[in-house]
Model the fold of this input.
Amino acid sequence: MTSSLLRPLGIYGYDSVEPIILAALVTEDPLLLIGRHGTGKTFLLNSLSEALGLEHRHYNASIISFDDLVGFPYPDATSASIRYLQTPATVWPAESVLIDEINRCRPEQQNRLFSLVQERRLQGIKLEKLRYRWAAMNPAGAEQGYIGAEALDPALADRFAFVVTVADWEELKEADRVRIADPRGDGALSRDGGVLLKKVEAARVRFAGLLAEPPPHVLAYACAVTTLLGEAGVRLSPRRARQLSRNLLAVLAVSSLPLKQLFQLVLQNSIPQFATGEQVSTDAIAAAHRIAWDSVTLDGREQWLHEFAREPDLARKARLLLKEAPNPDTASAAIAQFLATEPPERSYAFVLAVTPHLLDLPAGQCPVGAEGLADLSRAAAPLLHQDKVVAHRKVDPVNKDTPWLAPGRGSWVRTLTGYEEVEKLIEALPPAKRERAGGYLDAIVQKTGQIPAKASELITGFEAIIAAVKEAA
Done:
């Protein structure tokens, strides 16, 4: 779909997110709009219901009562169950529901709306005709200037498939500003002769086909970007990862825009934290998209490099290098990038664990090329004995009170914060691990001038890399 389906309905300023709006119509999954007052959120959703010919209900969550939704309860003729006296405002016959100002309702009302949004149920009763569940809200937080507008409960926010931030005046194109400012057509019904309905029905067929057999790159992208955002401090639930895949498939069914652009658009409008008041970095989202996209679209060499670069666990990174590197030159490129970007506590652990093993391999069997091996050797030279065994802590023969850990290196000062704890930690280790741990921590101290705060965790991680190297041998 290249031409706008919203503009003929008098809806302007939504071009950038139109594929998202159409995808929500195709899937019939819950849609949440976030924006400042007067940005057309309510108009958009009410207009969609008119264009699709839906039996529609529009509720203001700040003043709604439960009786407004379900009607007045009364016992049936046998007094064995409760029935509800329906009014023109009750939700039972509705095909679409808009819950306006959803973040202004009382907590107990939010709990009731939860089942409506998620399950299409009220009081445990299925709403048989309900298809579309839409909501709108102003930005939460006192700094936004909206008194009474609270952050949405995270569990409720996660039930909305799409969470769309609506453009304000300064973000609109000049032509759209003129159309929005034009008062002609106020109050007119949104009718397009059934064009939107036909397009949605056709796209729903395509969506069903994609859903029956999702393209592998869609699932791979959803998994990769969920992991990457989690590492950046933006948690997406397993449910959200599945929903993200569904969102991607839906947008593929409604739009012919370039895939990379579409995937980023879907990701930006599938983050529930925008409704919960959490601070989410748009740079983090863009970076996660870029890396995830590359990981599923690049060739084998570049894909492996991306996988190696984004793998946070050093033990798994060692396995990737030793067992899965496409070729020695690619492995060398990965080593160069790793040494240039990692902090000392991580790079030293990796170098100390991997380099001795690589140096012991027969010629022609090393998975790392000559350049990478040279980089590792230069990084390892200050840290290793000539026989490639890390030294254990010893006592300076001149000053027996000042311990030192690696041959030819400086001494630790007892006044360093954490000295006694680390000394006890190292002494409690078995001899082989004691030697390795002492040399590893000494390398960090010599580089940073301080004892690492989480020495125990670092040693555990270091030993995990050693185990991975032995397993790969």
Confidence is low (pLDDT under 50) at residues 385-410.
